[in-house]
Design goal:
alpha+beta, 4 helices
Amino acid sequence: MNRCAASGSTRSSGRSTSSPEGYELFDFPSDLEIIEYEHWASKIHPEDRPRIVLRGEIRHISCDGQVDSEHDGDLTYYGVPADVTDRKAVESALRDLQSQLAAPDRLASLGEMAGSIVHEVNQPLNAIATHAEAGLRWLSHAPPKALRISLVALQSKMKDYGLP
């Protein structure tokens, strides 16, 4: 659920005021009138200002606003903070699902590549076997005595490699 403060302001003097909803968003009593910046800043994660630690958990707070350039005195920022933690969780879950959906595509591509490699390796091996068989047929047609010895040696080698 996104909660949205009606209004809020921060002054550079180190003191802030907010609407009751703005105070509640940061777990402060809604009846506060002014809060010291250090007390408010204690809710901000030290490494990442958009993340706020409330009730022992990290909350993501988005604040849209602007500086009031026509205000006399301290620089005043008016903004509307909103708790966007649930939206961030949904976005993270969506990224996880997209990653899971991409995994089968990567596996399919890997399978296609493996099939292509097998084909490329088998092509020369099949050519070698075909040429050896053709050579055996050629040598088996009434060969002279010297070729008969070569034929026996070639047949022996082919048997060693499991060829017919």
